[in-house]
Fold each of these.
Amino acid sequence: MIKIALLGSTGSIGRQVLSVVRRYPDKFKIITMAAGSNAVLFSEQINEFKPKIACLTNPEKVSQIKEIPLGTQFYYGENALLHAVDSEADIVFDAVMGYAGLKAVKYAIELKKNVALANKETLVAGGSLIMPMAKEAGVNIIPVDSEHSAIFQCLNFNANKQFKNILITASGGALRNVPIEELEKVSANDALMHPNWNMGKKITIDCATMVNKGFEVIEAMWLFNAKRENIKVVVHPESIVHSLVEFDDGAIMAQMGVPSMELPIQLALTYPERLPIENHALNLYGKTLNFSEIDKNRYPCFDVVDRAIKLGGVYPCAISAADERIVELFLQGKIKYTEIAIYLEKVLEKIENISVTFDSLEYVDRLSRIIVDEIYKIRGSL
Amino acid sequence: MIKIALLGSTGSIGRQVLSVVRRYPDKFKIITMAAGSNAVLFSEQINEFKPKIACLTNPEKVSQIKEIPLGTQFYYGENALLHAVDSEADIVFDAVMGYAGLKAVKYAIELKKNVALANKETLVAGGSLIMPMAKEAGVNIIPVDSEHSAIFQCLNFNANKQFKNILITASGGALRNVPIEELEKVSANDALMHPNWNMGKKITIDCATMVNKGFEVIEAMWLFNAKRENIKVVVHPESIVHSLVEFDDGAIMAQMGVPSMELPIQLALTYPERLPIENHALNLYGKTLNFSEIDKNRYPCFDVVDRAIKLGGVYPCAISAADERIVELFLQGKIKYTEIAIYLEKVLEKIENISVTFDSLEYVDRLSRIIVDEIYKIRGSL
């Protein structure tokens, strides 16, 4: 029985973690659950799974929790996530969005708990702090992203295995077939129509811009101890090959599957064992798979993230935090799709490089969002 | 230093084994070498590699061996292959064609030597005898075929790993785009123009007919302890994906690479380690990969082999030996391409099922060739 502390139970990933637990109730037990603001769903979830600890980070929504099961301790507020980590869990499944997810991972490592990682900020912003900590504590940081899970599978679940290159696949996102000159006019709704994957709004926009792919490059660098030049991005519109690893002898191992997070989520909990998932088979017959390079004119944001990678230090943190705010502005219809790259650029220009500590990252995280709002004030709304 | 007994050094596979040894002279040493009839090339090879034992199976060609290096023992004749096996080799690389290759494997297992297997007959005809012997002796039968090597790689070099289905890829061979109604008229030269792979003549014809793919199904059954219903054939004209393995959770692992035997040959000697091979990288950018089911009308031979699999016993041996003779007749221009399936069918009808022993296999091997010649006498030449 694997005991799970699930952080972010009401999000897209969190709900699928619960599906895995429903599928294999003899193998998994939700010990603690934490959510942010979706108190109505969280209320249902805690009454179904009856965790020992339940935590809601947004105190304003507490009144929407109608009933707390007997035997469940309830926490709310800023420290709620840390309460959720401090439990008898074997593994912390971090599916929280934003900087809070990083703090939870830090605490999990301090408590020597393995972490299944679906939070982007942890490695994008804090990789240089988190990975040495995890290594020293002997804690595994297990990838949950479909791409990093695929790489992990190609490495036979050995993140230290030697390889030549990592090839991260990219669908190209919702706007891949929109003529470049028309990208200026696309709405949030257009950018949310992802052809292959059904995910949260923020990440779907990040797929369209390929900001997400830039972040995945950073995560792969940390997870698999890879240099930037040993990571290639391959545009693969069909989202059948979830990523690949090239070895010294020229062999390329690939992981294929239907485009669904169920597999990587379950595998993060069961590897190296693989448990059946019903109706999850990929039928390869009749499939055509295409692979190409990134069109830099279509995806200028990827280059901005790449510049942040080269700058290093707090810049990836800045770009990650800024992107969250910029995407909000885009989703609210306040800025154009093509302005996303421009905003990211400007944030990079305005951030000074300071040494990386958990405190400085938190500062840069907040500062970057403020800078976005300031740029917005100066540029004005549409 | 891995000491190799190389059987079949002058063939396409054997020559590439020697390339591996040339590439890594500090890692590999050719201890014994055996060849069949190409005495001129063999003479060069033994003087380059100076094996401790050199064996030529065709006694009529012995006079073409101009010089035997000092320190090399020379054997010739029918037992020469067995002399080659009986050495201080760590591994027997069996790249011999025909039934003799099976006898050599049997002897290698008796001497408890691991076998890198490029000989088809060993498993196609003798799998039911060889595999239990190998298991009991604790001897590894290491796949060399690109498809089986790919499967082995997808199983992380663990032939006992649990899986759901094996997917063997097939290029479709040289005639895949010839209209079915024109297949009757194709010449040996047409059938030898393989679009992706550069191999021996016999196997290139077997690729065109997909007899080879049927044999590979049999080999996969033995190598990976698979049932027939858990092996699928996927037509993949680009020959980039060399085969795939599907797991219980829906993940499909695939091995990709340039269509070259260098990788599987080297890997059979070095696995789980992977050593660099120069100019062997696959550039995935710009590639389109297609996957489809076998067109049964185009490849009737595949179904005949499948029937032999279902019949079991000595039938796979019969079909394998008969095919060798039938392809000879086709290469000599004596029978039509479309007659290959008809001949194979007729051999299946004429063979009686007798219990499988090494002796009965040898008998069926000879008998099947005789039956082919008898059918030819009755049907007459073109």
Amino acid sequence: MSVISATSQSALYASRLNRVRDEMQRQAIDATLLSVGHDLPYLTGYCAMPLERLTMLVVTHDAPATLIVPRLEAPRVTAHDEVFKIVAWGETENPVEIVAKHLGRAKKIAIGDQMWARFLVELMGFVSGASFARAVDVVGAMRMIKDAAEIAALQAAGAAADRVASQLQRGEIALRGRTEAQVSADISARLIAEGHDAVNFAIVAAGENAASPHHHAGPRVIQNNEILLCDFGGTMNGYCSDITRCVFLGEPSRKIMSAYSVLRAAHSAGVKAGVVGATCESVDAAARAVIDDAGFGDFFIHRTGHGIGMEAHEEPYMVSGNKLPIKAGHAFSVEPGIYLPGKWGMRLEDIVVATEAGPLSMTHVDHSLVILS
Amino acid sequence: MSVISATSQSALYASRLNRVRDEMQRQAIDATLLSVGHDLPYLTGYCAMPLERLTMLVVTHDAPATLIVPRLEAPRVTAHDEVFKIVAWGETENPVEIVAKHLGRAKKIAIGDQMWARFLVELMGFVSGASFARAVDVVGAMRMIKDAAEIAALQAAGAAADRVASQLQRGEIALRGRTEAQVSADISARLIAEGHDAVNFAIVAAGENAASPHHHAGPRVIQNNEILLCDFGGTMNGYCSDITRCVFLGEPSRKIMSAYSVLRAAHSAGVKAGVVGATCESVDAAARAVIDDAGFGDFFIHRTGHGIGMEAHEEPYMVSGNKLPIKAGHAFSVEPGIYLPGKWGMRLEDIVVATEAGPLSMTHVDHSLVILS
């Protein structure tokens, strides 16, 4: 991701846009609209500000792709003239009306997942009789399959996250007597120091808080004789890391040790199942079977994983019901967990890329429940 | 915002929800759907995670408000049983289908501005024949008028931002020889140190970069004899700060000094115009007239201000065409700017709350172009 010339970037975006148009044709979609979210930078290199001023890429079949952007944000756009036109709108114009004009007589319109709903509500006033689809069905299949440069970026981000996890496991991050929030801030600073451009999250959950999978690191002071769950990741050169490791402060009970060995086996089974040709749900099933068999089934309350790439969560999802076959280049988390409400929780997570040679892990640091005595 | 009991919080949310239902009645809206964004915490205290798992509050006339939330995020919700019911959905359920069931036969549905468009696209498959409106027209007017506790929170956040701006003006933040990105990180850390819970942005733009109003602080090294524009803010106890000050490193030219005196007069005129009963656009007009008269009209390329509260940008907007009359409790930025492409830019910004006694500023630090020699 380092030294790529503007020309080769233009060529990359142009080729991706061509494939989007091919896919639109196959699905009889007349126009694709992309705003906030990562489909836009994937196709143009430009990331829309998540604010009330609309930025929108309009892709149709019979006109150049057009990036409609607030005038005061136009200087932020790196032009790729062969890929898209830029139309800057002024503060007293209605950008939705401008989008509608560029849509021509489009009847079936694909909408970016994370576009603010207000713009779709407003657009409906301009395009009566149109029907809407999700742009993820147009762009997503392409974005899911990472090329060599994207896999290298995921590896670099994973290696940086690994280094922070290793600092945690070696006891280099002070824990006892500090709050979850302090440790979360410390981990965040270390993610940046190790090369991330942004921190996406740094969950630090102590003891009973670890039973809430999306716990917000708070004022709870970390104490002796409890488990600490750390799930953190960021974005580095445009691609995301995501890792979960647990440590135990003091001497874990036999119940904790035995639950952790179940978790580790479930994680390993999930990773092994992530082979080209298997379904996404089979990764979930493989991890879940181990936990079910050990009697913890009721305490594994989320899917086994999510796709990852430019976004921390993206397709494909490793969840029961998702029969999508895994392809080479699919990147996803494998992160089973066991959560005993009011008592403790544990989760173990790596990012895996499916390859023809088998699952390739982006993170490698010690998978055991490291004991910090 | 400090010591409020759960009971009084419940009463506050219940009263706000009642007013939402009254407004829905007036506009013949059958249901309001709120997800990501700040209408939801304003009405329930709960902030949805901006992820692919749907969180949605369904407000109708004939049933209790219902918060539909991913099961693994349910532990994050503070219950207010008299205000809303909680329905947790499991990983293999379709949350949009659950939302649709709670909508009953609703035909006119108001949609939160920042809800991910994918959920509206999916919902359209369940509620054929429904029409959609923007929830900002239901909740926004109420949220715009800040009560005493909210104004106190804005003042506290403003005072914290003031302290960081003062550090900048006193030369306590190293500038020369550092990159914009380094100074941005430094300002961010100081916002947190002064009491903010999160940093929303810290624009640092040197010299010609200051001509891009939404410049992203980058690798550009700050040098002598140039202007430095700093526009930063964060969230503290749920309410936002936002301030812009410029400093000059070295000896400014007469052209810069004279442009800055125009800018300062424009800012002052904008603040003075922000009185109860005046229109929002008149604030913009007052600031713009000063800049126009001085011949810089073409270089003031954005509206004069935006509302602020729980969100960094919210209604009302101080922009030509907005004839909304200012009411006591409206909080908004006044931030005229002058931008000479390729050369330099300058902006001056305070947050102002309209009161019966006149405009009340949330930030007070020196308004001059402080010279750091």
